[in-house]
Amino acid sequence: MPTELKLRESEDIQGDVLAGFKKDQMTLLFLKFEDAARARTWVRQLEPQISTTRQVATFNAAFRKARQASGGDDPQKLKATWMNVSFTHEGIWQLIGKDPLPSTRPGGTLEAFKDGSNKRALGDVGDSSPENWLFGNGKGQTVHAVLTIASDTVQDLQAAVTAQREATAQAKIVIVFQQNGATLTGSRRGKEHFGFKDGVSEPAVIGFDEPDPERPEYEKGKPGTRLIPAGEFVIGHPRIGGITYDEMPDWAVNGSFHVVRRLAQDVPGWWAQISAQLKVLKKAKVVPPEATPEWLAARVVGRWRSGTPVAKCPHADRPGNAEAGADNDFGFKNDPEGFVTPLFSHLRKTNPRDGLQEKPGAEPFPENPVMDRRRIMRRGSPYGAPFDPASEGPGGPDDPRGLLFVSYQSDLVEQFEFIQKAWINDPNFPPGRTNKPGPDPDVGPTGTVTYESPGASTQLTFNQFVTTEGSVYGFAPSLTTLRLLGEGRLTDKLPSTVRPTDAFLGVPDLYRQGGKSWYWAYGTGGSGPVARTVSIAEGDEHSDRLERPDRPLSTWPQLYSGVGRVDAVLPVPDEQRIDGRSRFWLFHTTEGRQVYRLISINDRAESGLPPDQAGTVDRGDRAITAWTSFNGIEQVDAFLPVPDWSGEFRNNGRSWYWVFHTLMGQQVYRLISIADGKAHTDVIERGDRSLSLWQSLAGIDKVDEFLAVPDMQMINGFSLFWVFHQDRYRIISIKSGAGHPDQESVGDRPLTLWTSLTN
Hints:
There is one protein chain. The protein is an alpha+beta fold. The chain has 15 helices and 29 strands. The strands form eight sheets. Strands 7, 8, 9, 10 and 13 form a five-stranded antiparallel beta sheet that branches. A four-stranded antiparallel beta sheet has the order 2-3-1-4. Helix 2 packs antiparallel against helix 12. The protein starts with 14 loop residues before the first helix and ends with a helix.
């Protein structure tokens, strides 16, 4: 492989975008998230299963090589199942809890993505109107994600689909619609239901496909297949100029916009009108007497059934030509009036190649860059059984069948929508004609087309026999962004200001003193771990204040030497304010591993030092495995004291805590207790459980920290806590007594409401 084909090695771009799954069997699951926290967990679990460009490209190359070695037969031992995923605008919003595109440029692709295809005036009227769609109509079951599963065999596909149906059910994700697609068999293989070879004109990609040494603008071994800059399909890569494109957010890099449309095909109706319109042409004596419906159908499509272009073989098909199904080495420059390949043909309406003129007689536009910047990457599949007029079951006239249209592009407006609205549906395209060419009679709306022949223009009427039954605009993110979405965010960049909610340590002798409580709030900034001093007043407002700004922990070597990040702090229950000293277990990360140390903080009166300087390390770092109750814990995230069984309310010499920790990328919790005394014996009181059992934590998939509301502990049997998660917080209450029922007291609010934590 040439070293310059770096895109083939990408493990960040999803595999279907550039490489293409190219499988005989495909299923699309249209999904709706019912629980954002569980949906994020599903995304995290899904991410390792998503195929990459490198995986798919490597497999496809091996498959192609094996097929060549076998004389054209598919290799039976080479099989794979691939998955890719895309999200709608609303789906991303659900995962991150806020609008990912708060402002968009009018008329741009980000606005189109935000709107959704049901609002985009794509010619979907009448039977094709969104209110009739099976999915994506913006009503009822909203689509948040589209999961693509493709495989070489029916059995492998069914196994993968079953596994994903179970995974989505566990995550409370609703399958709004399941769309199956499959390559037609026998002589129909590679064709769509009208009977014509499909997917012939796919573009090649610079940096992914090898150029022809003799004609470097084309792909090697595929004459006429133009090499298009990768940025036309994958965001963040070089693009063709000449169009005003939206500036894309950083999280969109290596992603692609995903269009999915279910297009029902009325096969007998379409062929019946071909025969009817052929009679009109014969009556006008503008076609050869021997012309057949096949002859006219080839001109409507622009290719014969085999894929042979009419431009190269105007009189008859060449089904025995081995290269017919991949023949792109032709153009329309020498057929400006459409006498051979009509101007209304599907082939010319979707890709005019070198034959597009601003007006008759004008020099045609160059393919590069005018035509190349409108290309899309198609990955569709037929669905339903082939038409069989004698069948009473699958294949009968009323049996659902059609084309599952799938495309990837960097710009919805300037690529897919432009082709659909300005070319396919527009009767005035190509422009400047006395007699309008008409809409695309293959897939376009009902309309009149002009059949041009030397000395005559004949009007034909074509009804629409392709109906839109569903449509979705998605975004297929990079693997990097997919991992971030699983964490409920879209950027891994450090915030411009520190978010100091990694942990809190209450200053022992300044807790509830003078109507306020002081804390050290720990966070991580661009220069490493820091801490600030904040205070919280008692009362209904609990007004907070920044008492001392951020300082690097490295300036406190007596406490924090070697600490990379403070993860959690737990007071030693029976050693608070004893002889002017309080002890804490400090859990921190250093060199990628969590450990803990025992520290003590002296009261100011005892040490004569400021409170944030009066501390020592009483025992150095140890592995967290030293805690019996931490068996199986990889990372402690936060402690929540059981209000009536901890601290000054210890239960028979023991303090109880809920420990929130990360296990295999998912946060869970367990219940532990710690005994008073020198050894502070700890035990597991109850094993790990899901966060979903906490009613008050609904929608949260990872808690950063809990902080007790100082003057609201054990009041009328209830205790209040602030819960910090990402850039938001909420207030929860926990009732004392059996079961400790919890509930959300104040819903999520932005962290910016805390003056002390955002200044």
